[in-house]
Every structure is written in structure tokens, then in C-alpha cells.
Amino acid sequence: MSTPLERWVDETAKLTKPDRVVFCDGSEAEYQGMIAEMLRGGDSYALNDKSYANCYLHRSNANDVARTEHLTFICAPTKDDAGPTNNWMDPEAAKRKVGALFDGAMRKRTMYVVPYIMGPVKSPISKVGVEVTDSAYVVASMRIMSRMGKAAMERIGSSSDFVPGLHSLGDLDPTRRYILHFPQEKLIWSVGSGYGGNALLGKKCLALRIASVMAREQGWMAEHMLILGLESPGGKVTYMGAAFPSACGKTNLAMMVSALESQGYKVWTVGDDIAWMQIAPDGYLHAINPEAGFFGVAPGTGMKTNPNVMGALRKNTLFTNVAMTPEREPWWEGIGGEAPTGLINWKGEKWDPSKGPAAHPNSRYTVPARQSPSISPKWEAPEGVPISAFIFGGRRTRLAPLVYESLDWQHGVFVGATMASETTAAATGDVGITRRDPMAMLPFCGYNMADYFGHWLEMGKKIPKPPKIFHVNWFRKGADGKFLWPGYGENVRVLKWILERVEGQGAAQETPIGYVPAMNGLTLDGLKISDEVLNELLRVNPQDWESEIGDTKDFFAKFGNRLPREIREEHEELARRFSRVAGVAR
Ligand code: GTP
Ligand code: SPV
Ligand code: MN
């Protein structure tokens, strides 16, 4: 008798027609075999073994360097199930169309079967996936990013309790690239891309798009959130989850070296990108990090901004699309210091500074989480960590103050639902365009976002001790076009205020959007910042908010009657609060 896994693998092999099929066990020897295969392939390079032991550079195809949201589909039974913010394909039509691309796609290639666990091996919150892929780079990356191999195989046994994901590089032609999700079947199909979020199917495809559907069905939450622990003097650790869109600072916040360390405030990393959360017997929402590694943005990462990550990257790291020095060390903009001469750019050419950055703006490192000096002792706790605060945020040049606190859970959900951010290089398309990105889940929600807002509202009623909800913006700019706030390790000052608010302290002033810190509310000692700049950072400008309220109205209109009544009411309430302020001013 064959198992469901064996049957699916057979079926898949019949379709894709590989030369051979290899079941991966996740061993170190197997990993080294994948690396050897990558080096033979000609687009990967061994880095300097003295300074970067067991580290490699991989160059993906130049047309394949970021997630492709326009080629990403939710194949739910009806278009309405996917909602107005997702691309939709009829499941049958999708299988016919993309099935044709998989037909024979692995000829002359090896088909790797990669069983993996998302989450700590023994956690009841974890889930199992199996990725079938023809890319050695994907196998090597999955070994860093998940608990891959034997443990997953044991957990599956003869059951059908795993999320199958079929991946092939195909011919890497963007006109034949599709990332498909079948939420009813809990199945993933990805063809034509070897890049991160498109190809490492455990991450965005399983842990967010498919998991968000499961979470709604089963009463838990799958969110695009980092998880950190803020230690305060005396050693108590308070956990927070923060949702910022791609390339908006999650990894950096989760791994920061606190500017207030001498005062006893320290940040511990539990996760840097995704949180799975369940209500626990203690009444708190408990979060696990489903991942085992960090797939982080390289540019901007240096000893000044993120020394923890810089320390972690010195061994066992895969770099993708970064530049390389003549000493065969990885290099990128913002790593610190001048660009060395003889730099080879991310495409493998001698770098010409007049022709763009040396490292691709979305170049990344893939590193085991346990290598970070900031890794929390609780990062693999099967029961997860109790979350006391949620933090939403994004890149807003003008609008949003440095930090504000929502009035209650329902208002907090509205704050999340009205999030927007300037686009980044993490996905293909224009950079710097402000777009609505509710809860940082716009590209990752596997179903209609109106129902997703509804799920958040429902969860609020069920969690006995719900997290308080905040919003931050590290990216507000002054008239000179420069960031007003120093960011990075200084962000701990904002976390400290959040902690104080959670504990019923922290000086605040009420505004129509919620509570912002009082002028003396933030701990700013040791930081040179004028009252004028602080004022600007905390300012709630009614004119800017008026146009924002109009913009969110248009966005919500897309959802028609499906938008929860509570969200509409919060929107009206916000407009009313601003008109009251205007009345007072007059
Ligand atoms: P994804 O992995 O795409 O989900 O991104 P992320 O949200 O983890 O973002 P990450 O921490 O990698 O930061 C992205 C970029 O923003 C990097 O270039 C950082 O250097 C920069 N950045 C992060 N935090 C701050 C900050 O506090 N201030 C400023 N100005 N830039 C920041
Ligand atoms: C993101 O874009 O939010 C990422 C990188 O975390 S990727 O895995 O490519 O989605
Ligand atoms: Mn991300």
C-alpha cells in the first residue's frame, strides 16, 4: 500500500517527467551535495572560506529577483472568494493552463522531494508541507528556512496531513511564470521562478496564503509579523508582534541592538517575518515563528544598523544577488565603508557605479535563525510566546506619526485595515508608490480581505487578554527630504513607550487617530533631537488625514457589502472626530 505522499509524488513525477526522484532527509551531507550541485550549475559561487565559512553567493536570473504579485493567483471556487485585492483564476482552468507548463518541465532534471515542518518540531501549532522542486538552490534554502527532512517525514507518516507544493523553475520566462494557490485543496503550484517568496513554498505560499485560510477555518491567526521580546530592567520579557509590509523594517526591528541597553532594555528575536498565533489557556494569544531562518534584505544592513545580523552572516549563509569583492566577500550598499575597487555586481559584471547599485536592491541573505546573537531562548518554545502588543506600520513620508495607540481592539483592527505604505523592491513594479496594504497582508491574504477583517474582529471577541494595538512610522521625512527619526536601534525608545502603555503607564495625548506620546512621553536621553523635530514626528495633520480618509473610503468601497459593518462605522467615527477638532479650532 502506498501512502498519500507517495501517491502524490508519483502523480507529480508522471506529469513533470524528471530523470530521477530524490527524497531529501535534511542531513548536512545532503546540504553539501546541493551546494556542489549549485556550484556545478554555474550561477553559484563559494565565498571566502576564512571570513565567510560555508557561505555561498547565488545569482538568480536577472528577470527573477523579486516576488511577482501580478503573476500570483488565488484559485478559489469563485472570484468573490479571492476578493478584489487578489488575482483570481478558476481552479479547473488554472490546472489546465499551468498543468501544461508542468508537463515534462523536469526532463533531464532531478525532482527533489522536500518534506518540511513550519514551526518548532514538537509544537502543536506547527504544520507540515512537502515541496517538490527541480532547484538545488530551493532545497538548500528550505533547509535553512524550515525544519526539513527526517522530522517532517516522521510527522507525516502514512497520513495525508501535509500541504503539497509543486515547484519547477520551468524556463524562467516571466510570460510562463505562475504562483498558484488552491485554498480549498490546500495545494500550491509555482512555475517559472527560482526567487525567494515565489519558490520557497513554505514561506509566503504556505505560511501566509494557505495558512491564512486555515487560520480562519480553525480560529487562529497567520500574520506577516515579526515577533520580538522586549526585556525591561529586572528581566521581565514582554512579547510583541509587528506587521510591516515587505522591506519596511521587520527584520531590523526584531534583531535590533537596543539603544537603551545600558538602562536595561534589550530586544530578543523570536521571528522576523511571520507569526502563527493561537489562543492559549492563559488567555493570551500565543505566537510561534513558523520559520527556522531569516531571508532578509541585504542592502542597508551594516554594523551601524544591524550588528546582530552582521554577526550571524559570517557562516552557513546563502547570499542571493549581492555583489562580491575581489576577496570573494559579499558586499552591498549600506554594509559600511567605501565600495572596494574591483567589485563584481549582482549580475556578475565588473561594477560601474554610473549603472546602478552593485547589489540588487532586493538582494537577500538566508541564514539560520539560531546564529543570531539576539535569538530568544523561547524562539522554539512549542507553546509559543504570549503577545501583549501588536504594532502596525509602514513607510509614510508625511502622514503617520512616529507612534500612536489605538482606542480599543475594534479601532485597532481599523488601524490595521487602513494601513498603507510606499512600495519597495521586494516585489516587481514601481518603487515608492503609496498603496493600501492592510495588516501588511495585501499580497499574502489567501481569501477575501473583507472576510479577513471580519476574522480579526471575531478573534477580538474570543481572546480573553487581547494585545493592545499600535501603529508606528519610522519613515516620516522633513522638508529637507531626510528621515526625521534615526530608526534602527533607536526604535527601542518607541517600544519602551508601547510597553509602558501596555502596563497602564506612559504619558500620552489624545488625538482623533488615537493616543500619541506626550511631548515628555518618550525616553530620549542620549539622543540629539530638537523639540521642533519631535513635534513634527508626533504631529497629526488634519489636512493630510482628510485626504487619507477619502482614500481609505475608496479602498473600502471595493469590498461592497462584504466589508464588516464595524469597519465602516470606525471610518465614520474617525471622520467625525476630525470634524470635531476642526470645529474646536474654528
Ligand atoms: P521583508 O523581508 O521584505 O518582509 O522586509 P522587512 O520588513 O523585514 O524589512 P527589513 O528589516 O529587511 O528592512 C528593509 C529596509 O529598510 C532595509 O534597507 C533597512 O535598512 C531599512 N530599515 C529598516 N529599519 C529601518 C529604520 O528604522 N529606519 C530606516 N530609515 N530604515 C530602516
Ligand atoms: C517579503 O517580500 O515580504 C519577503 C521576502 O519576506 S519573500 O520571501 O520573497 O516574500
Ligand atoms: Mn516579508
In what range is the share of β-strand residues? 15-25%
Mean pLDDT: 97
**What are the bound molecules?**
guanosine-5'-triphosphate, sulfopyruvate, manganese (II) ion
- Structure summary, number of beta strands: 29
Using the alpha-carbon principal axes, give the shape. Answer: globular
Question: Could you provide a short overview of the structure?
Answer:
By secondary structure, the protein is α/β, with parallel strands linked by helices. α15 packs antiparallel against α16.
What does this 3D model show about the protein?
This protein is an alpha/beta fold. It contains 16 helices and 29 strands. Strands 1, 4, 5, 6, 7, 8, 9, 10 and 11 form a 9-stranded mixed sheet that branches. Strand 16 and strand 17 (285-288) form a beta hairpin. Helix 2 packs antiparallel against helix 5 and helix 11 (409-417) packs antiparallel against helix 12 (449-462). The model has no long low-confidence stretch (mean pLDDT 97). It binds guanosine-5'-triphosphate, sulfopyruvate and manganese (II) ion. Residues 244, 246-252, 272-273, 296-297, 299-301, 305, 426, 474, 483, 487-488, 491 line the site of guanosine-5'-triphosphate.
